Amino acid sequence: MNNMLGVGQWHLGIRVGLLTILVILSICCSSSEPTRIGFVGTTSGRVADLGVAGRNGAILAVELRNQAGGVAGHQVELVVGDIKQESEIAERVTRELIAQGVIAIVGPMTSAMAIHMVPITDEAKILLVSPTATTTDLSNRDDYFFRVVPSNREVAAKNARYQLAQGLRRMAIVYDLANQPYSESWLNNFRDVFVQGGGVLTQTLNFKSGSDTFLLPIATEVLATQPDGVLIIAGSVDTALLCQQIRKLDARIPITTAEWGATKRLVELGGKAVEGVTAMQLFDPNDSTPAYQAFRQRYLSRFSHEPGFSGTAAFDATNVVLEALARRRPGQSLKEVIQATRRFKGIQHPLEFDDYGDANRAIFVTAVHDGQFVKVD
Q: Fewer Cβ atoms within 10 A, N terminus or C terminus of the chain?
């Protein structure tokens, strides 16, 4: 009887031991599974500078978090999708990332693509955090769309007030329909403040980036209205080309551009034609604080180009997602974490989200001097 009891205890011990091993293996395997987040942006084509810098900012944020141990014992994997600034591709890539199990998506970098992605992420209840999409069409909505920037209402308003302060009363505007939700809302917000301040819009012309549009006739038509200045709402490539055409006709007329065009590529392509151009910025290009300079040096060492506002904003957006993951409690969604936390660390200043997912961010007017963006307001 004692022998039978001993054999039974021995078998029970074996079973318990095997079960313990299986539990340990299960835990180990589970903890080795990466946490996947997506990045969506246009990383090829005419407006790729915004997407490439944004992708690189997201990569750097994930790499630094993984070096620090990841999130809740898991390494983080960034799954990147190039949407080529085409709505159908943006929708398809968004669905593919969700099917691959990403728990949040950083991006997109333009408002036009955000408009097409938001219904998909809302339906899936997947957090979408854009670094740079500022259209007012996505303001004041209880959805899964968040952004680490204010809407372009505030940005356009500051530009309008700056032009008025410089004594400009007659402005002509050229805007790109390839990012229509952004460019039209920017135009409308600028007009509201500029006209209220006593200004007049002499002309509003549009074109579509990447089409067969010839820019010299546009420049000719804009200047024919004899404006005091010209506002260009377009990406860096088209802004640079338009500046070159305008300068052929008038070497001195003031030109200003929205933040979409205010990247290093504007200076590289525009050359002398963009000297003196004022540009809106959603970050401080002259920030000398140790935190920003450390980030900038890491970014430069990793990617061999300046982060600019899009790389900086994408770094912030990715860190918001990573911090929300670290703070999340069982049963809590990432949206609920951000709404409960509100305030997150940004590389230049804290980010504070409102009830609808828009964040505060400092807005600057810069001017191109000797090939560099310099703060003027």
A: N
